[in-house]
Specification:
By secondary structure, the protein is mainly beta. The protein has no helices and 24 strands.
Length: 160
């Protein structure tokens, strides 16, 4: 189901089994695969690709040229940079504010970053630009620009 209250650029492909909610913006040449969910207010840049079963929650911003493997979940209000490559099974988590029922803390991913398969970014932490996160890592610290991290918990390996 695709809302009629969205803004779609040219040459965009949205699979018939995707769900796109209200007030979503999708840039030119973007491909949204089957069973993807794009929640209210999300903004997706041009030349992006979502394989299958991805969930982009409310008010997420994704830069141009970013690709997602299948089964990725991006929590509400997160920011993903441009030219980011995310393999399958990535989860960017948040911390709910139980008293107010809203999101309290959310992370971000900088431009040009590569994230391996099955990575979890814990609440409140961010990954800088041009970083590399190894597969099956759980990121529990801020990762600076041009750093390579891996493990559970993820640890600094070297500069890129």
């Amino acid at each position: 189901m695709i809302s009629k209250k969205i803004s779609v650029g040219s040459n965009v492909f949205i699979h018939p089994l995707a769900l796109i909610e209200d007030d979503v913006e999708i840039g030119d040449n973007t491909h949204i695969g089957p069973f993807c969910i794009v929640r209210n207010g999300a903004k997706i840049g041009k030349d992006c690709k979502f394989t299958a079963y991805c969930e982009i929650r409310d008010n997420v911003t994704i830069g141009s040229g970013t690709t997602f493997g299948s089964r990725c979940t991006i929590s509400a209000n997160a920011k993903i940079g441009s030219n980011v490559s995310i393999k399958y099974g990535f989860v960017l988590t948040d911390t709910p504010d139980l008293e107010e029922g809203s999101v309290k803390v959310v992370g971000s991913v900088g431009d040009g970053t590569l994230i391996g398969a099955n990575v979890t970014l814990m609440p409140g932490f961010s990954i800088g630009s041009m970083a590399i996160i190894g597969a099956c890592s759980q990121v529990r610290s801020n990762v600076s620009d041009n750093e390579v991290w891996y493990g559970n918990p993820a640890k600094f390996f070297r500069k890129r």
